[in-house]
Amino acid sequence: MASLIYSEEEYIAQYGPTPNDTPVNGWDSREPDKLVKTHCCFCGVQCGIQLKVKDDKVIGFEPWEEFPVNQGKLCPKGVKRYLQNEHPDRLVDPLIRTENGYREANWDEALNQTADAVRRIQSKYGKDAFAFLGGASMTNEKAYLNGKFARVALGTANIDYNGRLCMVSAGAANKMAFGVDRAANPWSDIPNAKVIILTGTNLAECFPILTDYVWRARDNGAKIIVIDPRITPIARTADLFLPVRPGRDSALAHGLLHQLIKNDWIDERFIEDHTNGFEATRELVEKYTPSLTEKITGVPAATIAKAAEFWGLAETSMLLHARGIEHHTKGVENVLSYINLVLATGRIGKPGSGYGTITGQGNGQGGREHGQRCNQLPGGRDINDQGHRNEIAEFWGLPESELPGEGLTACEIINDIEDGKIKGLISISFNPLVSIPDSKRTRKALEKLEFFAAIDFFMSETARYADIVLAGSLQEEDEGTVTTGEGRCVRLRNSVPPAGNARRDWEIICDLADRLGKGDHFDFSNSEQIFDELTKASQGGPIDYGGMSYGKIEANMGVFWPCPTTDHPGTPRLFEGGKFFHSDGRARFHAFDYRPPAEDVDHDYPIFFTSGRVVSQYLSGTQTRRIGGLVDQYPEPLCEIHPLLAARLGVFDGEVIRVVTRRGSMSLPAQIVKSIRPDTIFIPYHWPGKKAANQLTNRALDPISKIPEFKVCACRIEKLEGKTNPKMN
Ligand SMILES: Nc1nc2c(c(=O)[nH]1)N[C@H]1C(S)=C(S)[C@@H](COP(=O)(O)OP(=O)(O)OC[C@H]3O[C@@H](n4cnc5c(=O)[nH]c(N)nc54)[C@H](O)[C@@H]3O)O[C@H]1N2
Ligand SMILES: Nc1nc2c(c(=O)[nH]1)N[C@H]1C(S)=C(S)[C@@H](COP(=O)(O)OP(=O)(O)OC[C@H]3O[C@@H](n4cnc5c(=O)[nH]c(N)nc54)[C@H](O)[C@@H]3O)O[C@H]1N2
Ligand code: SF4
Ligand SMILES: [Mo]
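Above: inputs. Below: predicted complex with MGD.
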């Protein structure tokens, strides 16, 4: 133990040795048996980390300085992630619901009952009455297996995943604009950009390690432009901040393009040689003058003009965004409108120039590539494309007619459960009760299911509604791969065996497939075999992992797809030489006029409501609400409110207020901050039940991506006299 005051020797001389099994401040000082080089289990940056393992338990971590993305650095969640391994709440047995709560069961009993329920429901109501929900915190291997299990073993069309709440607007827009769904550049291009637009991302809290890349760009002279209704931590060090009103980004992007065209800051040559559709876009943005754009977006006209000037005159540039522009009923249109700026200036596919959506979940990228989406088959293939269907049916050894068609998306599956059309559900790595909008309806749906099995390693709020809870595996309890936000497929290494009688997720899925009579299609004895099948299945598809293997990924600290053959080095930067992935090789402009959100403010609900994250909590919180050091940093949801709005309502800092929308209401302490627009409030969503922000949100969906509108709806605030939060006063 190094100390600022004592050297270790001085300390021991004064106080005697510390018994070597005493954890100090949660830090276990014992010598580990081994250090395992793997990755953080949380966000899509997938920082490298070395887990310290002793007696088959994770007891701490060491930095992994050679991994190039984070070079040993970790954020507050990364340094605490090891604490979940020995958590007392860990599920260690399958559980079966009885009249008196859950009882422990053995695996045969739990899996047989699950398979019986599948057969019972499907024979009574049809195959599609049983749905499957997956997730993007899981490895590529599991994403592939989930898709295959649903189509081959369950034979249902209704499989989707939690990325439907996350990345799908960007995914759809990227395919429409570029013909492929992946960030265009490796992160290492960021420091070489001379101007960076960050829109709809709280980068410093959600991808803390990427701040370093942005700051390196700034040190190299880059101008940083941040677009957000809140002055987030990264905005405090930006050159320009555009305080956009929630739900107005397509108009703002059109206003910026208007200025670029007017000042001749566009690259006519690139547009001519490498794109289609510019003329319609030029016509559309003609009316988006700075003053009209200011009226719609709330961003001052002069600031819009300045941002266009920074972008227009730069030699190199990067545009990065996350869910702030994607969680909208026009999420796809917002993304496409910003992509227009990148294409119009021709700054993509070059060192220091490009574009990317910043992937959210640990495997947000790979989780959306290998077939666990309702419209997708492995290798990013389209389930509606006859050729793609034939390829995968043949690969799986099925007649094409047995391969189900396109099913419902995640929120639509919950809607159909509520309507009584879907009767059975298996979910893995998804906590929809906390994470889907309008939680009252989600609860009603879960209560209505005739059978529900949840696979998780903690008893999530959703799993409490399950008939059977199957104890699955933590990230460190299995081998596998994930594909990071920059498109780099990296290796996760098994550090410890699953706790107690818990089993690896893939073993549970394969065992269930066997009990459903399809075991011969799921004859895997380790994750590597699943990966090898996945790479073969992807070969020749739009997302090609064909040339990857565990050995190659390890030797290169990750491989970027496309990587079609074993001698191919992978593709860190896409679109070099202006070559896009549409069949004509050209990118597409898109001209979508601005339209308002599904629910805008009005007389009864006059305040914009938006939601998102804080640095110390992760998603629905099932993992991070169990780690003391993270809970201490931000124990419960607070409502960010501007002092002007607070004064108008007579609300003081720490006062418990009630926030009301057309779906529901919640009471929570006000946190008065000058960093938010005075017409908007913000609540983080990591808590369940009465503390859940999703009691308030609107389940209106984007017509293309089917993502819900988490980032904007209308609310009002009511005072609850006399109730204050003592901690805040
Ligand atoms: N600490 C932490 N990190 C995480 C996660 C976590 O839960 N906690 N989750 C991971 C996942 S899965 C994801 S998807 C990412 C999410 O990463 P981000 O998208 O960066 O995070 P959010 O907080 O959802 O929203 C980002 C910002 O959008 C702004 N915003 C709201 N409405 C609008 C709008 O209309 N326009 C614009 N331009 N901005 C708007 C909000 O004020 C907020 O600052 O983070 C990943 N990293
Ligand atoms: N209001 C509001 N709501 C939002 C958002 C928002 O910004 N605002 N953001 C949305 C976004 S971007 C996202 S990504 C979703 C996330 O929403 P969810 O996906 O529902 O949230 P998670 O917390 O990831 O839930 C995953 C569950 O899976 C378990 N789990 C994690 N890894 C594994 C694994 O490897 N195996 C197994 N078996 N289980 C595992 C965890 O213990 C947890 O219980 O929330 C969405 N909801
Ligand atoms: S930035 Fe993301 S991957 Fe890196 S330590 Fe933090 S949560 Fe983990
Ligand atoms: Mo996400």
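The chain has four domains: 2-84, 95-166+363-541, 168-357, 607-728.
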